[in-house]
Amino acid sequence: MTSARPAPTGLTSGARRVLQENWTGSCTVPSPGLYPHQWSWDSAFIAIGSRHISPRRAQRELETLLAAQWGDGRIPHIVFNPAVPPAAYFPGPDFWRSATAGAAAGAPRHTETSGIVQPPVHALACLLVHRADPRSSARHGFLARAYPRLAAWHRYLGRARDLGGGGLVSVVHPWEPGMDNSPCWDAPLARVAPAPPGTFRRADLDHGAASDRPTDLDYGRYVRLAADYRDGGYADHTAGSAFLVEDPGVNALLIASEHALAEIAALLGADAAPHRTRAADLTAALVDRLWDPAAGLFLCRDLHGGGPVRDLRSGGPVRDLHGGGSVRELHGGGPVRDLRGGGLVREFGAAGLLPLLVPGLPGDIAAALVRTACGDHFGLGRTARLVPSYDLLGPAFDLARYWRGPAWFNVNWLLERGLRLHGEPELADALRTAVLETAVTSGFAEYVDPYTGEARGTRDFSWTAALALDLAVAAGQEP
Ligand code: 2M8
Question: Measured from the CB, is residue 180 less than 6 Å from ligand 1?
Fold first, then answer.
């Protein structure tokens, strides 16, 4: 623990207030207006912060989520609160219809959820929550109950989602990596025919500025992909999603969580070795499939990529963003062929920096990632106040629009952790200070202008409050 200057005025009281106001009694919503249900990776980040207020509440947060796990092991990205009016969020439970459409995959019968997933931060969150009060955790059997569910979750990702056959997890929808409208998805999404505009109604625009949110065209494609997945019974191997991407952020978080699972197993007297082996195998696959030495960054692999794609809006060809690759399987296009190839997407997203979180990442790669983070594309410690979600120099950079440039607090929290892990305490300290200050000055914004820290999106956002509180505690600014 390093002690530094006092927390910015209002940080800890403000963070506690936000987390209290957004707590429903069994979980914390990201934001009561814009996101009025429980979200998967939000709850993991929220528990990491709320453990400093009440370890029991943080345990409850994660247990509520884990209770909605499907029989096949997946943890759904949203757990719906039946008390919230259906029109409050789109797509809601009547769209996903998990209890019926997901029955074959083991969806819960009495809890409505979505059918896609989000990044697996949960084992890491469970370990950190346990550490906040090991006695209360042991007394309540927190880890003993969580461990089999977390292990089943990781097994689902490893078995059902290795759709490229190269040992990494694939995502089947842009909502799964959590960075919904990242420019990294522009090319893979361009081949998805959007659902017609009149067939659904967006609820997000009731709460946020349209210029801060994904476009209607993006939404049309999100809806099409989710509806196709649902109509295929949420099956992974047979569904043949039109969107199939290996994302470095999702895989890096899985590796960090697999290391956490090894520690949890050891604490419970179970065999930790398989988790360590799995973490090492995943790390090798991550480097093998997604590391781009010339870019100094991990890139996304588009499993359908490798050649020019057609823009379904105009029917014309779009810019080929894929760096080679050869084989692909287009959905509905006959037998599944070898998907090992695909093409790297030549866009610089912040997800490509997240492998910095991985213990055991080769030292030369970690050093190159730090250089990239501090370089012109991400501006850490130089031009940017917080690390942006996307390349400051990228053709699609937009400092207001959601995951196309704004800085997000969870990404910066993860990078702060990664910088510390890989021997960069000064950079980590400076980033921590910037996160703490910006959390307060932005009113715990959902995301901010990466240069100025000006607030964007909704305010009093739960993971911003939680992760700022966590960093304040780590800095010795809050008991
Ligand atoms: C955003 O995504 C949801 C869909 O899951 C949406 O836009 O409605 C993303 O920022 C995602 O990462 C986050 O988990 C979610 C709730 O905060 O909102």
Answer: yes
